[in-house]
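Troubleshooting log. The previous structure file for this entry was overwritten by mistake, so regenerating from the original sequence record. Sequence copied from the archived sheet and checked twice against the printout by T.R.
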Amino acid sequence: MKHYPHHIGDFNGATRHLTRIERSVYRDLLDLYYDTEQPLNTDVALLCRRILANSNEESTAVKQVLKEFFTSAKLGWYHDRCEAVIYSYHQNTSQKALAGKASAEAKRLRKQQAMAGTNGQQPLKSVATKPQRNSTNHKPKPEPKPLTKDKSATIVAFVLPEWIDKNLWDGWHSTPKRKNATDEQKTLAVKKITKWRDEGLDWRDALEKSAIGGYQGLFAPSAINGDKGQALTFAERDQLAKQKRWEEMTGRKWPTESQYFIDVDTSVLELK
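Regenerated output below.
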């Protein structure tokens, strides 16, 4: 692709929380995606080299942006909006190419007719043709179709998991930017939410913010320790994820420390 649309409002709304380095890295990754017209390489070190992210701060920004805005797939780092723009670009280009060829052929024929002085009333020259056995069986040669990705082999009917809040999900998909999401895009969103849940992140808050803000994508929530006001450690995230899975399987709340103790009425005890 030689160019692609850049919506300033959408980009600013989606990246307002990023640092200037992260915003710059995000634009470079988008340029690379559109230039190659394929998902980004899974080798993060190679990606850093391609966009000149040489310092530790820049390479860290690359990892953060990939985690937040792209989806890891077998073919590489996948981006929903980039894929939609590339598909639309190829469709438009194919239609213009066919129209251009038809126009050039019409100009060539008019020039030949003018040189021969036929003015389109007589054939330019006789051409030997093979006799047709049955003209009624003649079928025109189908026009070549633009190359598109065969998604039928990977797309399955989408079913929303029961543990995801349907009201939040429907609220998000009722927004103008998300209401036309495909089943494949919905499946990728569920994978991202599942990953956040397993990491102990507040995925409900992320889903609610996207619904309220009318965003096209989901943004990684921050894991915060409510008691200390600090970011959770990996051990605390793992413990929180175990508690949530236990609550979902049992339908009960995780017991607090106070529930492990039994109150004893000392007035009924007698010393012997």
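The CA atoms of residues 64 and 272 lie 67 Å apart. Archived copy saved in two places this time.
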